[in-house]
Every structure is written in structure tokens, then in C-alpha cells.
Amino acid sequence: MSQDVDPESRPRVVLGVGGGIAAYKACEVLRRLTESGHRVRVVPTEAALRFVGAATFEALSGQPVATGVFADVPEVPHVRIGQTADLVVVVPATADLLAKAAHGLADDLLTATLLTARCPVLMVPAMHTEMWEHAATQANVATLRSRGTVVAEPASGRLTGADTGKGRLAEPAEIVELARLLLAEPTALPRDLVGRKVVVSAGGTREPLDPVRFLGNRSSGKQGYALARVAAQRGAEVTLVAGNTADLADPAGARVLRVGSARELRDAMHAESAGADVVVMAAAVADFRPVALSDSKIKKSGQEPAPIKLTTNPDILVELVRARPAGQVVVGFAAETGDATGDVLHHGRAKLGRKGCDLLVVNAVGDGKAFEVEDNAGWLLAADGSETPIPHGSKTQLAVAVWNAILPLLDSCARLE
């Protein structure tokens, strides 16, 4: 979002900050939101200010910070802040905050704001595993979700002290991506994949030539990660099989398996997809690999190098389609360019026929499109012959469009069963 846009037209975001050690990460969320052109008002709890001072939030947001309902009384902030917001994001949402929000308590400025907000509300939990899994917390989360609040799935990893487990705050970049998604599409994250097992592949494969070099491609893995992120936040049990992904942070709520070559990806996808409801092959798999792998680095000799003999890699998508159990939905991706024989859609239609999957997402690539960028566009081609354009937008928005197209196929399979 350009900084030249009229300030009054910029989305108003309220960033609530709870009293947990993860409060320091709210500063990075705030920085990313303000730098992308959003107007952000930080509303911390008193406990949050024990971790990060008000001056830090004021300096980063350019807005005053208060915690109580008696600050600036003539402006009635405990009502106005929520009424005028386009989005409320709470980072971190502690067990205490989730409980207060679920029960409608309003004993400070943040909880009062949550009661008056009529915009999308995104609560991003962070707490120890035992607190997250406690029946009281789970009941509060269920209550909030039933009212339309988006309570994000927490990540797994290092917690306070030496503890590890589920309950870690999602990474700031992921939080901001979810916030941007809800600003664009407020109903993009329903809990409609609960009970579904999903396997997604992402990133590019690397085929080694010698201990130093490899054949690869330009895939960053961002689209596959977006697909896994959206599925996890919509309630699915997600396994992400990741090739080379440029050090992307694991999507919160997803189990991540890392692979290198096409054959490693093939083995992992076959093993993981056996009991899945949906398999999405978003990885950019190398079509070829060297016939021979040199045990030592191939040196320059002053002469022309010997040609590298290649062999064809297995077609993983075709294999998955042939091996799928009844009722499983399989989705493929195709990165295409036009040529003398046809345009992008022509090649996409031909690929759908060869692969036999239920849906094929076709992306035009080249000239800054699809690979190594934040946005994407394309077409959804279905086995029934329908074709749906996906407008240009973030890769997370494209992921939402794909999952929206998958849901009717799952419902159809359930009826057939």
C-alpha cells in the first residue's frame, strides 16, 4: 500500500497487546502494519506494559497509548476505538484475555474495545501448552469462534524457559498476512475444514550434480505455505511437505516435513497422502535429474565441460492420482508460459487432461509473475470442464480461492459415500 494514499482512507487497525512474554513480537507486527500503510492504534493491557513500554508502541505507531477507560474521557475511547476500527488484532491473546473476551468482561480499554468492535477480530494466542489445552481455554476459544471471532491456531516450538510445545505465538509475518487477508475478505477463515486431513507440498526440488551444485528452479514455496496456512487456520490437520523454501517460517498449526530431491518428495507424498482427504501438489518438482552424481566437485579444466546426461523424474501428481483412495480430492499446480503452440490456458487444459486431478491451478510465469513474488493470479480448471479465473491478489487470497473450490468437491464425495 502506497504511503501517498490519503491517510483517512487507510485501514484502521487496532492492535491489542496482552500481558505475555510474546508481547515483544507485537512490535514487529506493528512495524509491518504501519510500513504497509495501515493506521494502527495500540491498545495494551496493564500487564503488557510490564513487557514493552508505552513509549515503544507510541513511537512505532505515532498514536497515543492508554490502558484504562478513563483516559481522554471526552472522546469516549472505550467505545470509539472499536466502533471506528476496520480490524482488531490481539497479539498475544493470553488465556486471561481469551476468557475475558468469551465472557464479555470489559474491565480495561482493550476488553471494552473488543465489545464495541463490529469489524473482524483476529486473536493470536500465545501461552504454555497446558494452558492452551485446558478445557476452560478450549471452551472459551470455541465460544469466540462460534461468534465469528477468528482465533488463530498457535504454532509449536520453544516457549518460555526450556519448555517446548503447542502454544507459541505465530510469526509476525504470518500474523500480518492473516490480518491483511481479513481486511480484504472478512469471512475468509471459517472453520470448515475441521476433521479433514490435508497434505500440501511446497517449494522447489533440488537435484544434486556434485557436493556443491544442483539443478533447481525459482520456486520460493510461498504459495504452498499459504495453502497450508489457510487450511490450518480453517481447522484442518495439515502436513506440509517442503522442498527448498527460502527459509520460510513454518505455518502455525501445520506439521512440516523437509525434503530435498524429487524422489524424496515423491516418497514423502505417497507416505503422507494415504489417509488424507485432500492432497495439494503445489511444489515445483524438477522434471529431470542427472543420471550420475559426482562424488567430488566438478572442476574447471580449461576445456569445455562434458555434457550432463539427464533422466526424467517421476510424475508425482500422476502417481498420486492413480493411487488415491476413494473420496480423496487431488489438486495440482501448473506454471505455464505461452508459446507457438498455444497460450497459458491451452497448455493448462492439456496438462489437466494428462494429470487426471480434480482441480488444476494454472499460473502464468515469467516477467515477475508467480515465482519469487508476494502476489499471484491464475485460473482454476476443474475436471468437469469448468474454468474460474482467480484475480490478482496475495498468495494467501489465492489459497482461499483454492480451498473454497475444494470444499464442494469434499461435500460431493461425502454424499457419494
Automatic annotation (TrEMBL):
Protein name: Coenzyme A biosynthesis bifunctional protein CoaBC
Catalytic activity: (R)-4'-phosphopantothenate + L-cysteine + CTP = N-[(R)-4-phosphopantothenoyl]-L-cysteine + CMP + diphosphate + H(+); N-[(R)-4-phosphopantothenoyl]-L-cysteine + H(+) = (R)-4'-phosphopantetheine + CO2
Cell inner membrane listed as a keyword: no
Residue span(s) of domain DNA/pantothenate metabolism flavoprotein C-terminal: 193-407
InterPro entries per UniProt: CoaB-like_sf (IPR035929), CoaBC (IPR005252), DNA/pantothenate-metab_flavo_C (IPR007085), Flavin_trans-like (IPR036551), Flavoprotein (IPR003382)
Xref: Pfam families: DFP, Flavoprotein
PANTHER family: HOMO-OLIGOMERIC FLAVIN CONTAINING CYS DECARBOXYLASE FAMILY (PTHR14359), PHOSPHOPANTOTHENOYLCYSTEINE DECARBOXYLASE (PTHR14359:SF6)
Gene3D superfamilies according to UniProt: CoaB-like, Flavin prenyltransferase-like
Note accompanying the cofactor annotation: Binds 1 FMN per subunit.
Organism annotation: Kutzneria albida DSM 43870
Ranges where the record places region Phosphopantothenate--cysteine ligase: 198-417
Family the entry assigns: In the N-terminal section; belongs to the HFCD (homo-oligomeric flavin containing Cys decarboxylase) superfamily. In the C-terminal section; belongs to the PPC synthetase family.
Cofactor: Mg(2+); FMN
One cellular-component annotation, GO: phosphopantothenoylcysteine decarboxylase complex
Pathway: Cofactor biosynthesis; coenzyme A biosynthesis; CoA from (R)-pantothenate: step 2/5; Cofactor biosynthesis; coenzyme A biosynthesis; CoA from (R)-pantothenate: step 3/5
Positions contributing to CTP binding: D287, K297, P314, D315, I316, L317, F333, K351, K355
Keywords: Decarboxylase, Flavoprotein, FMN, Ligase, Lyase, Magnesium, Metal-binding, Multifunctional enzyme
EC number: 4.1.1.36, 6.3.2.5
GO biological process entries: coenzyme A biosynthetic process; pantothenate catabolic process
Cleaved signal peptide residues: none
One example GO MF annotation: phosphopantothenoylcysteine decarboxylase activity
Region of interest called Phosphopantothenoylcysteine decarboxylase, as start-end residue ranges on this chain: 1-197
Record-annotated Flavoprotein domain positions: 12-178
Role this protein plays: Catalyzes two sequential steps in the biosynthesis of coenzyme A. In the first step cysteine is conjugated to 4'-phosphopantothenate to form 4-phosphopantothenoylcysteine. In the second step the latter compound is decarboxylated to form 4'-phosphopantotheine.
